[in-house]
Design a protein that fits this description.
Blueprint: H1 5-12, H2 25-29, H3 36-63, H4 65-69, H5 78-81, H6 86-107, H7 109-126, H8 135-150, H9 161-186, H10 190-193, H11 202-225, H12 227-233, H13 242-258, H14 265-271, H15 273-290
Length: 291
Amino acid sequence: MSGGVTDLARLARPRQWVKNGFVLVGWLFGHGWREPGTTGEAIAAFAAFCLVSSAVYALNDVLDRAADRAHPQKRERPVASGAVSVAGALGFAAALAALGLALAAWISRPALAIAAGYIVLNLGYSLGLKHVAILDVFMIAGGFMLRILAGTLGIGIAPSRWLLACGLMLTVFLGFTKRRAELLELEDQGGDHRRVLADYTPELLDKMISISAAGALTAYALYTVDAATVALHGTDKLILTLPFVLYGIFRFIYLLHRRGGGGDPARDLLHDPHLLGAAIGWLAAAAWILA
């Protein structure tokens, strides 16, 4: 059974496309919106990553189908539940990857290399590196960093050192909160579903979450007041966006420990009005100040 349109749409996980918003961060803070051609390339890069990330999700559903069947929620995924066949999912993944790479190639050679690197990175993750503690989280963060590079180097914008530092600390934070959420959800059976969880403890993950959250906040705060930032944007008011970032991170940690969140940042963002409000407030304030 190859699956119907609805099942294939679920396999693509369009809800997760919100993560590809990282592609547009460099376009915003690099003033790419002032150039019509660059804006079109940024949108195309976003679309390309939606396609290749969906291809990766479909492939992961095939590789993880046995473990997913033992998970209380993931057992309903299309491949694990039998709604989409393995062959159908692999064909769908190949088609999405081909379209995404073709779109990236249309943008630029660097964009194509970054999109291809994203696929290779996730193949390595799925085929074994996800079982190596700490490295597994850095692999997740690497996927986000490639999104940032797609929206900078891929469209001809030089990424700032601050953008890369903030992005790395934030994505490592999201990776460790994901592992912490899995431990909370699966309790003592975490290692049965995801082998690497046996190498983590709540105390260890909480320390790493605290360090990465503090690093992300510090890096962003320093970025907003850096002399080069003020000179680039022609304003020293970017510090006014810091409360939104602070509130968003604190709210995310709260959701992790008190509301069963943290495992799916895209879902948390779209379903929690406080987190969504912080994200929209940050984006609106940043856009208004930069414009």
